[in-house]
């Protein structure tokens, strides 16, 4: 009988297998953790993209009016809005419709630049630069209006909606 040697001593091969098993398990945990991070980052990037898309579309809808299709144009704005902005826009629609019809206004909006200045999973703020080509009885040859807007958005069940729109600078 050897002195100091246990009958339970592991062979070098067993130690190697154990070390490899621990390394593989650690690698699997690391891969799982990194996968969770990547998925979370992708969801955040998708949400940012969606919020900016809605801000851009609402801006186009808001700056596009035609006296011949006003109800449809207004419905496009309402469909992407919520809260106080939606209420204010709806309340102003009747007067706006009269003005647009009386002046035979046709406005076609176009977003030139847009970006998010703040974002979290439930809210975002976008700055948008847009132009609108406008014709009416006072300017039958047309003119271009320049807009800089700040849009506040919230995420609802139906998706991102604009809850505030302000003209800036």
Automatic annotation (TrEMBL):
The keyword Transmembrane applies. Keywords: Membrane, Transmembrane, Transmembrane helix. The chain crosses the membrane at residues 15-39. It is found in: Membrane. It comes from the Bacteria. PANTHER family: OUTER MEMBRANE PROTEIN RV1973. This is Mce-associated membrane protein. It comes from Tenggerimyces flavus.
């Amino acid at each position: 009988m050897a002195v100091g040697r246990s009958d339970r001593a592991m062979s070098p091969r067993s130690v190697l297998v154990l070390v490899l098993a621990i390394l593989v398990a650690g690698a699997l945990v690391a891969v799982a953790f990194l996968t969770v991070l990547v998925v979370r980052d992708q969801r955040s990037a998708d949400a940012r993209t969606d919020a900016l898309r809605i801000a851009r579309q609402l801006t186009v809808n808001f700056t596009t009016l035609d006296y011949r299709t006003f109800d449809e144009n207004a419905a496009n704005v309402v469909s992407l809005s919520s809260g106080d902005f939606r209420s204010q826009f709806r309340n102003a629609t009747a007067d706006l419709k009269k003005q647009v019809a009386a002046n035979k206004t046709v406005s076609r909006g176009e977003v030139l630049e847009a970006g998010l200045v703040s974002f979290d999973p439930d809210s975002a703020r976008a700055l948008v630069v847009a132009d609108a080509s406008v014709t009416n009885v006072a300017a039958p040859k047309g003119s271009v209006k320049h807009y800089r807007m700040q849009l506040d958005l919230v995420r609802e069940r139906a998706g991102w909606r604009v809850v505030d729109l302000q003209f800036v600078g």
